[in-house]
Automatic annotation (TrEMBL):
It is an enzyme of class 3 (hydrolase). This is DNA-3-methyladenine glycosylase II. Keywords: DNA damage, DNA repair. It comes from the Bacteria. Signal peptide: none annotated.
Length: 196
């Protein structure tokens, strides 16, 4: 799926060696999944380890007997959501997401048809969904090619390690234009360097 991106990035002096070392990019977009459930998972996962987030997500699914839907979420009290292990801010965020979908303020099924900036605009309108969460959704759910999450801590650390340059939001964003239109794949390789 990422063959063209990998061939392009192989020519870059910073990312090329990582492509050789780590092989093919393993991002597998989940374009046809239930976006509502995916976004609830993204909200739960904010600032948590994957393992902790998974436990909370599974507790929530058990609480609603399976598939997460706006109706099921709105039927739960805030305390019931909180008892699944999430912070109050995440409870409010998930409730806001559910309400917006129910009220058709967020047309969740159409997100994959919108350009990146429109998806971003739709998602950050939800309480508690910021730029980072929207970028993770664009990268890992919709499989968009050209996302570089400048606010991600791993990206900041990895960028410095890979390039030898101090991370600065504006200068680094300009620097990454060299990886356009495949900055999602470049990000994946930058994260890989931190795994070792």
């Amino acid at each position: 799926m990422w063959k063209e991106a990998e061939e392009f990035l192989l020519k870059d002096k910073y990312i090329g060696p990582l492509v050789k070392k780590y092989g093919s990019c393993k991002i597998k977009p989940r374009v046809h999944i239930d976006y509502f459930q995916g976004l609830v998972g993204e909200i739960i996962g904010q600032q948590l380890s994957g393992r902790v987030a998974d436990v909370i997500y599974e507790r929530l699914k058990k609480k609603v007997n399976g598939r997460l839907t706006p109706r099921k979420i709105l039927a739960l009290s805030d305390q019931e959501l909180r008892n699944c292990g999430m912070a109050w801010a995440k409870v409010r965020s998930i409730k806001d997401l559910a309400q917006r979908v129910k009220d058709k303020k967020l047309h969740i099924r159409n997100l994959n048809e919108l350009p990146d900036d429109e998806v971003m605009k739709e998602l950050v309108a939800v309480k508690g969904i910021g730029r980072w969460t929207a970028e993770m959704f664009l990268m890992f759910t919709l499989g968009r090619l050209d996302i570089f999450p400048v606010d991600d801590l791993g990206i900041k650390k990895g960028f410095e390690k890979v390039t030898g340059k101090k991370f600065d939001r504006i200068r680094s964003a300009k620097f990454t234009l060299r990886w356009k239109p495949y900055r999602t794949v470049a990000s994946w390789y930058i994260w890989r360097i931190l795994d070792n």
